[in-house]
Design a protein that fits this description.
The protein has 15 helices and ten strands. It is of the alpha+beta class and about 400 residues long. The strands form five sheets. The chain has a two-stranded antiparallel sheet. Strands 3-4 form a two-stranded antiparallel sheet. A two-stranded antiparallel ribbon has the order 5-6. The protein is elongated. It starts with 6 loop residues before the first helix and ends with a helix. This is Per os infectivity factor 0 like protein. It comes from Argiope bruennichi (Wasp spider).
Length: about 400
């Protein structure tokens, strides 16, 4: 019957329209987003009967788009990470900038954050523009906050983010008193025993004494691709907010331990300061502990050496005050109680450190949450991707 269209004919017509629409959208995008799409590529070939039915009257218009892609400069310009250092939200007045992330720097507050209601984060990887999960960058920047901790560990700069994956780094591990071994945070040989002996908090505080607190060097300038771009028009597109992190303003372990010691001393009828313990740890502890890491058989020598030094200091101090106690037993008891309380309070979150297995689980969960799919987490960002995901609201209008 005249006017009746079969399913096969409809399928062929839709295929023709789909290919023609790609060309239309490419031209539309070059007009509306020239800074990005002047660095885009579209490849076209004539359609054949294997693609869809070709009416002779429009044979010259029947085409197939074989590929659309962006180059590295376009990938820079279309990407958006809308948070500055410490996850402060980018504002309209902010310029594109480098922000620290682990042992590197990433770009933030790019112009793309202000040009569309939907944004995408991307990076140039293996010759392609690849979608990036911004949740992972946010987690890597301040892992303690996302793990529900109240403060940031002061000696580390967050996790690394490489090839789309969260990675541990040496500085993160050492900040928690652990060694960085084959991409994982692990205790050094004999550390478990020494933490039982001295208490985890006190021993790891000794280990973190010499952690390098220097920051990774910032690139001299942002890429040239961001120069001479049009002024931003809209407000930031991402409404995610993350509370500010309040870092410890000073080394509070010694002060905290001293207060605990005073309370314990009062309870058991002694008047002794934790300064003895502090001097012990600073002067004698590191030297002896270093020996113990290689030879655990010196356990008894280690204990007696430390207690002997501590006892002599305690007796001298108490004699000057006209008091005398059995220093050996009493001092060791106070040390053990202080170490125990510190470990329970865990003021530096030593029990919350991530290892490789935990981080892989978190990495996968963040992918599932952000992409809402079970695989293909490294999807290429192409013009077709932007039309479907990012520019859809603009196209509807």
């Amino acid at each position: 019957m005249y006017g009746h269209i079969s399913k096969l004919e409809l399928d062929h017509a839709l295929r023709y329209a789909e290919e023609a629409t790609k060309v239309f959208l490419f031209d539309w995008s070059k007009t509306n987003f020239p800074d990005i799409f002047e660095h885009a590529k579209i490849e076209i070939r004539p359609a054949t009967s294997k693609d869809y039915y070709i009416p002779s009257s429009i044979a010259d218009k029947c085409i197939v788009v074989t590929e659309t892609s962006f180059d590295e400069k376009a990938c820079l310009l279309l990407a958006c990470f809308p948070f500055k250092e410490n996850l402060q939200k980018c504002e309209k007045s902010d310029r594109v900038q480098w922000v620290p992330l682990g042992q590197q720097h990433i770009l933030a507050c790019q112009p793309a954050c202000f040009t569309s209601q939907t944004t995408v984060d991307a990076e140039w990887r293996n010759g392609k523009c690849v979608q990036v999960n911004p949740f992972k960058k946010m987690f890597a920047m301040l892992p303690e906050r996302h793990l529900g901790l109240k403060s940031k560990q002061p000696f580390q700069d967050g996790l690394d983010f490489e090839e789309g994956k969260l990675k541990l780094n040496r500085k993160y591990c050492e900040a928690f008193g652990l060694s960085f071994v084959r991409g994982n945070c692990q205790p050094h040989e004999g550390q478990d025993f020494l933490e039982i002996l001295f208490g985890k908090t006190i021993y790891r505080k000794i280990l973190t004494k010499n952690v390098n607190v220097s920051k990774p060097s910032k690139p001299a300038s942002v890429p040239d691709a961001f120069n001479n771009l049009p002024k931003k028009q809209n407000q930031p597109t991402d409404d995610l907010t993350v509370p500010d992190i309040s870092e410890p303003k000073s080394d509070s372990v010694s002060n905290l331990a001293a207060e605990i010691a005073k309370e314990l001393a009062a309870d058991i009828g002694m008047d002794i300061s934790l300064s003895i313990l502090e001097r012990l740890l600073k002067k004698q502890g590191p030297k002896l502990l270093k020996k113990a890491t290689s030879k655990l058989v010196i356990k008894s020598v280690l204990i007696h050496s430390i207690v002997r030094i501590s006892t002599s200091m305690a007796i001298a101090s108490l004699k000057a005050m006209g008091k005398m106690v059995g220093g050996f037993t009493s001092l060791l008891a106070i040390y053990d109680l202080v170490a125990m309380v510190l470990d329970v309070m865990d003021p530096y979150n030593y029990d919350k450190v991530l290892d490789l297995k935990k981080l892989k689980d978190i990495d996968h969960q963040l992918d599932l949450q952000y992409y809402s799919r079970e695989d293909n987490f490294d999807k290429e960002v192409t013009p077709e991707f932007l039309w479907d995901i990012v520019y859809s609201s603009n196209l509807e209008s």
